[in-house]
Amino acid sequence: MEFFLVRHGETLSNIERRYQGWTESPLSPQGLLQAEQTGFYLAGMGITALYCSDLLRAQKTAELIGASCLLRPIINPMLREINFGKWEGLTFAEIGATWGNVMSRWLDDPFNQAAPAGETLEKVCTRMLTFLETLTDEAPEHQRIAVVSHGGSIRVLLHHILGYSHEGLWDIKVDNASISLIQKEDGLYRVIYCNRVHHLKGKDNIGVYNDGDQ
Question: What is the Cα–Cα distance from 19 to 132, expressed in whole angstroms?
Fold first, then answer.
C-alpha cells in the first residue's frame, strides 16, 4: 500500500508566516494553482482513494486534486495540523515577545512540550499513525492513496518512520503542495521520497530516501 502525503497549497497565513494550527486561512491564488498542479500530477499515478484533514485549506486542496483524479475527498479530523493553542495566528517574533522561554523549550523538545493550550508533536504523531493503521485495516483494496494534510503533521510522521533523532525533526522540509511517498509492506512503513515538488512550476525536485523502515 502506498500513501502520497500532500501538504495543502499556500495560504494567506503562509505568506505572512503565521502559525496556523487549527485556525482557518484560505488558499492564496498561488495555493489554488499549486493544488490544481498537484491534481494533474496525481491523476497519472493511479490514485484509488483521497483523504484530507477537515481544515478548510486541506479540504479545498483535496477538492481540486479530486477534480483531476475523479475522486471525492473523504474528510478525517485526525489529519489536522498540530494545535498551536494561544500561538495561532501569530508570527514567530510575536510569539517570542510574549512566550520566549516557552517557545525555546518547545523548539528544543516539541515532542513533549506544547504551546499554551496546544498539543505536543507526540500526540500529533500518534493520531497520524492511528489514521494510517485504521485505513490499512478498513480499506485494504485501496493500494494508492492520496492524503492531504499539513506541514507539521506530515513532518512528524516522516520523522517517525525515518527513525531520526529528535534533533532531526527540523531537517525535514515539507513545502506547500509537496508530495511525500511512503509505502507499507509486511507491516513496515518505508519512506520512498520526501517533499517532492517537481510537479509545481518553477520548483526543483527534492532528495529521495530509501531507508527508515519501522
Answer: 26
**Local structure of residue 90 (DSSP, 8 states):** -
pLDDT of residue 204: 53
pTM, to two decimals: 0.92
Query: Could you give the CA distance from residue 55 to residue 170 in angstroms, rounded to a whole number?
Result: 24
Q: How many CB atoms lie within 10 A of CB 209?
A: 19
pLDDT in tens, 98-142: 999 999 999 999 999 999 999 999 999 999 999 999 987 777 677
Residue 81 is a catalytic residue? yes
pLDDT, tens only, 12-26: 999 999 999 999 999
- Of the residues 8, 150, 159, 160, which is catalytic? 8
Would you state the cell numbers that stand for residue 32, as one nine-digit string? 489554488
Sheet of 188-196: strand order equals: 74-75, 49-52, 144-149, 2-7, 179-185, 188-196
Which of the residues 10, 81, 150, 159 is marked catalytic? Answer: 81
